[in-house]
């Protein structure tokens, strides 16, 4: 698939692929590793340094992180003196989690640098985030290529760094765990989500309001897979609904999630503030049509053309869409399933990513030949 196998240094500053806590970020990092290896490359996770600064006033944390990053760069540089890799790939550098390793190491060793899912936020330019975002933007500007998972990220980077080289890599998943034949249970609504403060809790709150507005004669039940520090808060949001209608399943393994999705009739998740949401792709891969809000990055992975419903951030709009889906038992999920396999599968992503890397390395070879 590629001209020659490469040795790639992979780094995810927000969350290492080996991090013990599951999340969409960890899953995407792992899937990127799978793509790069499927393309025939040798890929090493070069560092597990978590470069995360959640508060703009955490000056002490920023100083400590800079010191730790300096030590980590020195360690990696020492390792590379006996043989450096061909390429550095950084997944998800942004204002709260910049790559403080790759840009300096790539300059020192003459390596090309690629980012995947980098982003820019003008409203975050305050406190120490002025410095972290400047670091992230400098990395994007100097990168050989920046692969954007959403149109929103691409637009933001193009405005902040007009000289940056940008291209698209649509969000993707491994669809094989969701290959079972769908067996939808009438009235069965499914949600898979972490229970964290902020946007996740806001989505649960909006979903609870929507369910309260479902028609009295509608036969429905909800299964929620997921857990987290805000579990009690989330469950309290649904206290006004009949307990018998809601099953709190906790965190499920991948096989358990796949089985749950196969038995659903509708997947419901508002998606407040979602960058895109890999769970939406998993639901569609399992043959489950989605009801979500037309907000943030959700439209990147949920489209009406694939048989899903996108509505405004409004409880009544969500309730109406769910009601329509539950009362119309046509096989819309088959359309969504085919769409995800064609456009958002790990196979499709491997082809796109391999071609992008080939292009970067070919340009580098040409430039060296001219030197």
What keywords describe this structure?
Rossmann fold; alpha/beta; 6-stranded parallel β-sheet; 2 domains; 371 residues
* CA-based gyration radius: 22 Å
Task: Supply the number of helical segments.
Answer: 12
CATH hierarchy, class of the largest domain: Alpha Beta
Q: Give helix % range.
A: 40-55%
Query: Alpha-carbon distance between the termini?
Result: 28 Å
CATH fold call of the largest domain: Rossmann fold
**Major sheet: arrangement of strands:** 2-1-3-4-5-6
Structural description of this entry:
This protein is α/β, with parallel strands linked by helices and 371 residues long. It folds into two domains: 192 residues, Glycogen Phosphorylase B (Rossmann fold, 3-Layer(aba) Sandwich); 168 residues, Rossmann fold (3-Layer(aba) Sandwich), CATH 3.40.50.2000. The protein contains twelve helices and twelve strands. Strands 2-1-3-4-5-6 form a six-stranded parallel sheet, with helices on both faces. Helix 6 crosses helix 10 and helix 9 crosses helix 11. The longest helix has 25 residues. The protein is globular. The model has no long low-confidence stretch (mean pLDDT 94).
């Amino acid at each position: 698939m590629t001209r020659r196998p490469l040795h790639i240094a992979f780094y995810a500053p927000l969350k290492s692929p080996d991090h013990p806590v599951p999340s969409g970020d960890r899953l995407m990092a792992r899937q990127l590793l799978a793509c790069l290896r499927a393309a025939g490359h040798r890929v090493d996770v070069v560092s597990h340094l978590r470069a995360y600064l959640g508060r703009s006033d955490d000056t002490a944390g920023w100083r400590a992180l800079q010191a730790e990053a300096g030590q980590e760069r020195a360690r990696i540089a020492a390792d590379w003196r006996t043989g450096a890799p061909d390429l550095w790939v950084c997944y998800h550098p942004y204002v709260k989690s910049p790559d403080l390793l790759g840009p300096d190491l790539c300059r020192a060793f003459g390596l090309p640098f690629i980012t995947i899912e980098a982003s820019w936020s003008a409203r975050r330019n305050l406190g120490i985030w002025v410095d972290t975002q400047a670091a992230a933007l400098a990395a994007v500007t100097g990168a050989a290529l920046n692969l954007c998972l959403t149109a929103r990220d691409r637009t933001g980077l193009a405005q902040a760094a007009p000289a940056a080289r940008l291209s698209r890599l649509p969000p993707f998943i491994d669809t094989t765990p969701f290959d079972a034949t769908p067996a939808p249970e009438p009235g069965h609504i499914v949600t898979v989500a972490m229970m964290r403060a902020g946007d996740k809790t806001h989505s649960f709150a909006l979903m609870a309001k929507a369910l309260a507005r479902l028609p009295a004669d509608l036969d429905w039940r909800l299964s929620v897979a997921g857990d987290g520090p805000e579990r009690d808060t989330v469950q309290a949001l649904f206290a006004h609904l009949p307990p018998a209608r809601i099953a709190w399943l906790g965190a499920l393994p991948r096989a358990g999630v796949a089985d749950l999705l196969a038995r659903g009739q509708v997947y419901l998740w508002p998606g407040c503030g979602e960058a895109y949401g890999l769970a939406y792709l998993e639901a569609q891969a399992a043959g489950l049509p989605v009801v979500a809000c037309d907000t943030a990055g959700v439209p990147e992975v949920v489209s009406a053309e694939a048989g899903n419903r996108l509505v405004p951030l409004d409880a009544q709009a969500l309730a109406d869409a769910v009601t329509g889906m539950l009362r119309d038992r046509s096989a819309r999920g088959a359309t969504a399933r085919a769409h995800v396999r064609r456009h958002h599968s790990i196979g499709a992503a491997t082809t796109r990513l391999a071609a992008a890397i080939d292009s970067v390395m070919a340009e580098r070879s040409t430039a060296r030949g001219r030197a």
